[in-house]
Amino acid sequence: MPDGVTPEQVAIMLGTDRISISPAVGRDDGSVWVLSPRPIGIGRLRIAPDSFPAARNTVRLIDAPAFGTGLHPTTALCLETLDEIVQFHPPDAVLDVGTGSGVLALGALILGVPRAVAIDTDAGALRVAAENARLNGVDERLELLRGGPETIAGTWPLVVANILAAPLIEMTPTLVRRVGHRGTLVLSGIPSSVEPDVHQAYKRLGMRRLDVRSRAGWIALLMQASW
Fold it and tell me: Structural domain boundaries of the chain?
């Protein structure tokens, strides 16, 4: 409830005096509010708080403000798409652009991708991602770097970027250069209303749309390099 609504007002509206109050914590840039972290299932993966025991196909995350709790629709869309890619066309490496908590890179590694590089411009997010990697026992297979796609060299068979539509369009030339021969690109953080703009920006540079997924007004684009 908003801060301006008192428990007494809620009790009157519900016709009861049995009201319990718990603080909600903002996560994923304030777009998701949680009373306490809880496990959720996404494809073959389970996203769980760090207090839960290690288990097969489980990504455990510390409770931190870095984006990527698994609760936001864009994160879920990316993880579902990654799950299918790894299951049917497993790559030998993945690049995670704007990694936040590291959940996408960690999910790929736990599903069997041998190695991952994750980049972010936020040093705080990289610290959270490093702690999450250690927690899940994959830190030796994950390389964390500060910066955007223009700060690194090389190509990857699978690139994922869950950011926002405007920066995705702005970084189109550099992000496309990170996609290898017949490589796959997963883009999200895209409101459904601007999906055509993002699609056109990448189509102009040789990316072919394979699939579009939507949830709660958000879009994930699956694209493949034409080269």
Answer: 1-36, 40-225
Query: Per CATH, which fold does 40-225 belong to?
Result: Rossmann fold (3.40.50)
Count how many residues are written for the chain: 227
Beta strands in 62-197 (DSSP E): 93-97, 115-120, 142-146, 156-162, 179-191
- Helical axes 103-110 vs 73-88, angle rounded to 10°: 30
Give the residue ranges of DSSP H helices in 90-160.
103-110, 123-135
Longest dimension (CA), the chain: 65
Q: How confident is the model at residue 20 (pLDDT cuts 50, 70, 90)?
A: confident
Contact 35, 1 (CB under 8 A): no
Summarize pLDDT for 64-95 with one digit per residue, the tens. 999 999 999 999 999 999 999 999 999 999 99
Residue 1 has pLDDT above 80, yes or no: no
